[in-house]
Amino acid sequence: MLAEIKGLNEECGVFGIWGHQDAPQITYYGIHSLQHRGQEGAGIVVTNGEKLKGIKGEGLVTEVFSNGQLGDIHGKAAIGHVRYATAGGGGIENVQPLLFHSQKGSLAIAHNGNLVNANALKHQLENQGSIFQTSSDTEVLAHLIKRSGYSLLKDRVKNALSMLKGAYAFLLMTETEMMVALDPNGLRPLSIGQLGNAYVVASETCALDVVGATYIRDVLPGEFLVIDDEGIHSEWFSLQTNRAICSMEYIYFSRPDSNIDGINIHTARKNLGKRLALESPIEADVVTGVPDSSISAAIGYAEVAGIPYELGLIKNRYVGRTFIQPSQSLREQGVKMKLSPVRGVVEGKRVVMVDDSIVRGTTSRRIVTMLREAGATEVHVRISSPPIKNPCYYGIDTSTHEELIASSHSIEEMRKLIGADSLAFLSEEGLLDGIGRKYEGENRGQCMACFTGKYPTEIYPDTVLPHEKLNL
Is 12 part of the annotated catalytic residue set? Predict the structure, then answer.
């Protein structure tokens, strides 16, 4: 993926295991397989049944755990987290899992998603005396749990969850149990597996495969699970559920070998490319995809179009994390460092360049320029998703209309700005059909807000900048 240079980033990935003697080591491999979901920080918290111990740091998983620290912690259960900062910013204090200690015991929390009412809840909690140690929206849950009047922890957690709005897949762990919760819209993916007698929970099924766990099922919207030494117990904290899985999980974020709601990501993306070829054909000599997330769609496009698929763009996998560079000139240099055109493939050819999305347009413009410099006679850009016209408030770092080129430009204007000979996007209907989430002509549970502006939850005023407009 080109998340680092495209500016389209999902917030986090979570992984947990209960009931295994190698829990810390397995969690390391679990979060390593989810590294694509966040590269700014990583952490693991372990329980031995009596106390919680955590290790976390800024950077990649291999950087955070580079000195053999995991050999110093032992336990039967662990939760882990990889982070891309969209809510609360960076800093070691915001790296998860967050770990809290009290006289009644300890609690660790790992969160994937974004709470749209976090600021409103923070104001309320601070007025009641709470003092926040981080700027992460995840900490809100800990304070709500602490202030709940229920006697049992699971009831306090369920009560706190009922106050949250937005996207969240939570893993919580005490000395003696792990709790799992998915928001009532199921905006983020979360799966359960089994490894021997141990239970595993992960943001994507690819993590289950990597550690050798057998997939059992997805966590359902509004579901609350308690996992302990006696097994796994399912309850509900919300009965008002309305499935709305994030479209970008299928289009961009998830690994191709993952499955979400029974749909394989590679297959879905390939189908999007096939549908795109039917909707927007063009005469050309070669089809290429922008690595890595667009490769599947490019293969599908080439198959239906009857045009050879070739590796016209190569990704350099050994470049540092250039996304930390703030200026536009450095961002564009990052594109050049991470991608190289294959002159022998594109020179003298009419090229179809398939990509998964256009956010700001700067990366697309640079890639088109590189292909022309490598000798392409024509560059036709095909996007395997509809135009992203609206901000996401659920954990993707597109928070204003100004960031989104499609919000204020027509397709023809975008074509001119990126320098392509032609530009076409997949239709909204084609997206639903291609992924396979359409039933009897209707969307059977997919969030399309970044394309349509119709959000599945209430969006709170302090989540949106004053000049932003919403179609609720």
Answer: yes
